[in-house]
Amino acid sequence: MTEASSAVPEKSQGQADFIRFDDISKRFGKNVVLDDLSFSVGAGERVTLIGPSGSGKTTILRMLMTLLKPDSGTIKVGDDYLYHEERNGKLAAASEAHIRKVRGRITMVFQQYNLFPNMRVLRNVTEAPVHVLGKSKDEAEERAKELLEMVGLSDKVSSYPSQLSGGQQQRVAIARALAMEPDILLLDEVTSALDPELAAEVLDVLRDVAKSSDITMLCVTHAMKFARDVSNRVMMFDAGRIIEAAPPGEIFDSPKQERTQKFLQSVL
Ligand code: ADP
Questions:
Q1: Which atom of ligand 1 is nearest to the CA of 188?
Q2: Which part of the chain is the ABC transporter domain (predicted)?
């Protein structure tokens, strides 16, 4: 078992093991992607997952989104199981209703923004709150306008995605994710497709989100300065295991593992 220690941020009064992975394994054919992995994340904590490409970081996020099922082990969010291992060693997925309830608390922003191309910016943000959360159109629009202001796009509410830059589209995607009022925000390489200047705009918005809310964040990124500014803890992945986990100051300034040192030299 690879146990990474969990520090709950001072500001969070929440549960210390709000998200919990226990003995999670996943393989694709002979490729062991996650190897008996255990860790927990406290409510309100902001954790960055770093490590070489293919080390299993995105797989973690996809499992939380129930886009991917582990082969064995247990995943819990709050008091609810997403997957759990039964006494006979078989993996049981939670019921559909149960998964919907947990899924309603988690949203993910991807590298590709995946906005609805035929809808204006405002409708991109209100669509799910109206159809999934059952909000009234007025209520959803009011909140969407606040969020679009927060991401610096008040003047683009009536634009179509194709009229926006990549950075602007990604900021709409962030507003859209937050409109679902999630407890947990998953960010998967959200700036990888962007030029540095546009990436910086997106990271500034995410810094504000992190500072102004108690949202629990799990973030896969190669933007190390952002990771340093925003995270409470950084977890270094290598070959499906967490080889080192520490507050950003510690891991970036004095990494203990040689593998972490080499990785950081390659990206910094
Ligand atoms: P990271 O996010 O650290 O780059 P991933 O979690 O995306 O790594 O991938 C881990 C490994 O799992 C990689 O070797 C990748 O090729 C493999 N993998 C991911 N998804 C699939 C899939 N659907 N089918 C087969 N292999 C996959």
A1: 2
A2: 19-264
Q: What are phi and psi of 256, to 5 degrees?
A: -85, -35
Nearest CA residue ID for atom 16, ligand 1: 54
CA of 84 to the centre of ligand 1 (A): 22
Residue labelled with tokens 């295991």: 241
Interface pTM (ipTM) of the complex? 0.96
Query: CA 147 → CA 63, 129, 166, distances in Å?
Result: 27, 13, 18
pLDDT tens figures, 126-175: 999 999 999 999 999 999 999 999 999 999 999 999 999 999 999 999 99
pTM equals 0.91
User: DSSP readout, 79-118?
Assistant: TEEEEEE-TTS-EEEPPHHHHHHHHTTEEEE-SS----TT
